[in-house]
Amino acid sequence: MNLPPVIAIDGPTASGKGTVASLVAEKLGFHYLDSGALYRLVALGSQQAGIDPKNASALGQLTKKLVISFKNGQILLNSEDVTEVIRTEEIGLRASAIAVHPEVRQALVGVQHRFRTNPGLVADGRDMASVIFPDAVLKVFLTATAQARAERRYKQLIAKGISAKLEDLLHDLQERDARDSSRGAAPLLVASGAKVLETSELSIDQAVKTVLDWYQSAIV
Ligand code: DC
Question: Are the CB atoms for 99 and 54 separated by under 8 Å?
Fold first, then answer.
């Protein structure tokens, strides 16, 4: 049986992979999986439940029980709309902390596989190509310098009316990069066979076009 095609787009925080991946999905009419949102939901759920980010077994149990749904651009956790709440820096850092536990990662594998439906899927995260969809037809590692990523995040926050300091953002994302890359379970890495896309000097349109061109070459 042929499974629907997957384009895996991995990369560090604020690399623009979410924007690029969702636009590629839109152009192709594919589904889109924002796997980082799943870790953010576990971060929020565990914070609400008062679970210590180091308590791997309690986090694993909680992850199995969370009722998660993505509907019309909204993200619901146990029926509550948390689309905006999960985007804060605090939840991002907590997501990176809880994501080190194999118990949490394992509990999210099935959830992620269920996004793979026809006509295809664009999946973004850290381990899409290496662990979750190793048979992806195209594997992209999308990155940019830490400075360029901090500046992008700064502009996003300011545009939303959220105050932020560039130095703090740079520090937070370097901390997150270090933890995501050094953890034992499914670390952030350039998967074997992945194409690296450096976006510091690229516009979103150029990055999207590059991925679409690579996909066309991959399926002929
Ligand atoms: O992509 P993001 O910034 O929304 O992800 C938040 C955190 O979740 C990230 O710092 C590490 C974790 N994560 C992960 O471990 N594996 C993924 N596939 C996606 C995110």
Answer: no
Residue type (1 letter), 34: D
Q: Decide: pTM greater than 0.90.
A: yes
CA of 203 to the centre of ligand 1 (A): 23
Contacts of 148 (CB under 8 A, 6+ apart): 199, 200
- Domains assigned to the chain: 6-219 (3.40.50.300)
Please give the distance of CA 153 from its chain centroid, rounded to a whole number: 15
Q: How confident is the model at residue 214 (pLDDT cuts 50, 70, 90)?
A: very high
By most ligand atoms within 8 Å of CB, the mutation choice from 10, 19, 35 for ligand 1 is 35
- Stretch 65-78: mean pLDDT: 92
Per-residue model confidence as pLDDT tens digits over 131-146:
999 999 999 999 999 9
CA–CA separation, 84 vs 180, rounded Å? 23
**CA-to-CA separations, 154 to 65, 144, 205, in angstroms, rounded:** 34, 15, 20
